[in-house]
Amino acid sequence: MPEKKGSASSVAVSTAGLRKSYGDKTVLDGVDLHIPAGSVFALLGPNGAGKTTTVQILSTLIGADGGQVRVAGHDLATEPQAVRAAIGVTGQFSAVDGLITGEENMLLMADLHHLPKREGRQVAAELLERFDLAEAAKRPASTYSGGMKRRLDIAMTLVGNPRIIFLDEPTTGLDPRSRRTMWQIVRELVTGGVTVFLTTQYLEEADELADRIAVLNAGRIAAQGTAEELKRLVPGGHVRLRFTDPAAYQSAAHVLRAATRDDESLALQIPGDGSQRELRSVLDRLDSAGIEADELTVHTPDLDDVFFALTGGTDIPDHPQEAVR
């Protein structure tokens, strides 16, 4: 199914046939991406799948071996400087200099962007306030917690007012509270019109934040779509009914012949997608037979199921990338 077409200004990042090899090892083998402006896009994949290489290419840090790439409306091969002016990058490891203060880190970044002194100080102060770092601004960055360093890292990235930000595993090593703070920062960035390209090993993070998700495996896109679209690729959804009355259990098993029986726990498992329509159908059939379950639970595949299926586990459709766009 072809990608929907849009104006160049509405597309933040697009790649077609992106390739990269190191010697005889192919890292990216024909990657196609289409990322709308003002959205969060998450790239998932196991270690070594090519996530960081993708970010490095899109942010002009390394060159591609083949394919076409446009970032912020600019051709990556012919307009790398224009691409650099439109993006910001925060890697897995903080770029913060721990020997100087948070404020000095910000001012150094302002100098690198050639901002006038007064404007640089104003931008630094506003961003330190925005990221709740104003009180710690005069302290050496080496005294900051991991979450504070991450916030400072992103604040430094925003000095240049980028339209697209690449966050390469930005919450790795953070505690749950700091991670959720980062999630809120990402949401605020997108509300302000910034496009966020996120790589992460936390599937909950992608589910929570991303408008669209792509799963990269062995250098290829295994599937991409919304979280809900990806979840529908994986079998295993079901409704589980448990009974305390053996007679009710036997009657329900007779009515729901497609169910898998668990005679020991008096439970029935009915395959399905967990939709309201499907659930109502099961309950209506039980009601018409005068049967009432004591416990009902619905299981739908989550991104963990999708990840393991697409990277070598559960069976999935033969052409998952075509199944979701």
Properties at a glance:
325 residues; alpha/beta; Rossmann fold; Alpha-Beta Plaits; 6-stranded mixed sheet; 4-stranded antiparallel sheet; 12 helices; 36% helix; disordered N terminus
Write the layout of secondary structure elements.
Blueprint: E1 11-22, E2 25-36, E3 40-44, H1 51-58, E4 66-71, E5 74-75, H2 80-86, E6 87-90, H3 102-112, H4 117-130, H5 146-158, E7 164-168, H6 176-191, E8 195-199, H7 203-209, E9 212-217, E10 220-225, H8 227-231, E11 238-242, H9 246-255, E12 260-262, E13 267-271, H10 276-288, E14 295-299, H11 303-310, H12 320-323
Parallel strand pairs: 3-8, 3-9, 6-7, 7-8
Antiparallel strand pairs: 1-2, 1-4, 4-5, 9-10, 11-13, 11-14, 12-13
Protein architecture, described:
This protein is α/β, with parallel strands linked by helices and 325 residues long. The chain has two domains: 8-96 and 144-231, P-loop containing nucleotide triphosphate hydrolases (Rossmann fold), CATH 3.40.50; 238-299, Alpha-Beta Plaits, CATH 3.30.70. The protein is built from twelve helices and 14 strands. The protein has helices spanning 51-58, 80-86, 102-112, 117-130, 146-158, 176-191, 203-209, 227-231, 246-255, 276-288, 303-310, 320-323; strands at 11-22, 25-36, 40-44, 66-71, 74-75, 87-90, 164-168, 195-199, 212-217, 220-225, 238-242, 260-262, 267-271, 295-299. The strands form three sheets. A six-stranded mixed beta sheet has the order 6-7-8-3-9-10, with helices on both faces. Helix 3 (102-112) runs parallel beside helix 5, helix 4 crosses helix 5 (146-158) and helix 5 runs parallel beside helix 6 (176-191). The radius of gyration is 24 Å and the shape is elongated.
